[in-house]
Specification:
- Helices cover 44% and strands 14% of the residues.
- The relative contact order is 0.09.
- The protein starts with a strand and ends with a strand.
- The strands form three sheets. A six-stranded parallel beta sheet has the order 3-2-1-4-5-6, with helices on both faces.
- By secondary structure, it is an alpha/beta fold.
- α5 runs parallel beside α6 and α10 packs across α12.
- It folds into two domains: 197 residues, Rossmann fold (3-Layer(aba) Sandwich); 236 residues, 3-Layer(aba) Sandwich (Rossmann fold), CATH 3.40.50.
- It is elongated, with a radius of gyration of 24 Å.
- The chain is built from 18 helices and 14 strands.
- It binds uridine-5'-diphosphate-xylopyranose.
- Uridine-5'-diphosphate-xylopyranose binds next to α10.
Length: 434
Amino acid sequence: MKISVIGTGYVGLVSGACFAEFGWNVTCIDKSSERIESLKQGIIPIYEPGLDDLVLSNVRAGRLSFSLDYAPAVEDSDAVFIAVGTPSRRGDGHADLTYVYAAAEEIASHLAGYTVVVDKSTVPVGTARKVAEIIRKANPNADFDVASNPEFLREGSAIGDFMRPDRVVIGAESERAKAVLKELYRPLYQIETPMVFTTLETAELIKYASNAFLAAKISFINEISALCEKTGADIKAISKGMGLDKRIGSKFLQAGPGYGGSCFPKDVSALIRIFHDNNLEPHILEAVTEVNLNQKMRLAYRVINLLGQDLTQKTIAVLGLTFKPETDDMREAPSLVIVPELIKAGAHIKACDPQGVREAKKLLPESVEYLDSPYDAVKDADAVIILTEWNQFRGLDLELIKKQMNGTLFADFRNIYDRSLVEKAGFTYIAVGR
Ligand code: UDX
């Protein structure tokens, strides 16, 4: 089968490389000549474990190529995936569909023979039908169907999520379109992946509802974590005790500094907008967002208060800046709220992150100092805060850290350390909800 993927961002590139790995012939198309040139040279613009090898081996095998032009790839394709960005529109939180509609227009002029145009980008309910309208208007003779096939890829484990998904959701309303998508995902039938076939609108909403539900689980446990700190209960034991109930499940129930990333914050606010557009009140979703921001502020102020409020003479080492480990993605990372709050209180920040520094430099105040090693970052610091649970920060030599530091505050905001070990090394230990 032949596929074109429009957009070589995170979703487009991972999906394109994985479909090629399934054995299909894939062309990834992007407007950015810089991006296409570097991909052609084997330079992968994002950090995602395993992606460079997967891209390279499929390019070598002749199954994966990159192009600036829709022609001739789209003409030859059985399916064209739209995987362009849908950023939050400034001001109102709506998903910005400019790139999706522009891609639809351009696809329309290149369609030849029966083609399924598949929305992979996360888009508001009704977008797939709008894409169909745009294509029909631009090319009334085109023989096509539109489908919705939302992605559920986590950064850092995107290839595994594509190759061994919990489910594949396909919104398709003609038998022809369903047959093409079934064939594309045939390799997953061998591992008995459940396929949910549904309407376009339902598929679009499954994506938003899934991400919003996971965000709600995190905000729920984060809200309980504040109560744990007041009552002396232990949030880790609570997560375990709750998670063992199969109706609840243990995943996405870890308290921390709040969720970030390119999806949860954006998708929750887009879903809030969709509710408002339909004259409905998104009570739970509003609370999910509020609790998430509160959590970041609450943790920043715990440190500020413990260090004496005026931090002008204080240095704080921040270990981990990205919104989660195994990515260089800084979008909506808790560090973007917590670090500026500490700086506002007067602190000098020494930060260390294995992959995020390049992006962090663009987003954090200029005064932040960046160090390659956590042991250099903690030198003369009054406090150390773990904000991202990178493996590099899980087994720190606590004695050495203590020796390097000026103060004794150890804030483990990912709950990865055993309190007694940290206290034994001479620190004052604080964590989230413990
Ligand atoms: C998410 C969804 O998981 C994926 O299905 C979707 O398609 C894209 O959005 P991603 O943003 O890569 O993936 O990260 P994820 O692993 O889901 O984590 C999101 C945020 O939640 C991170 O900031 C993470 O630290 C936080 N988180 C996650 C918690 O605070 N606690 C948890 O228990 C789990």
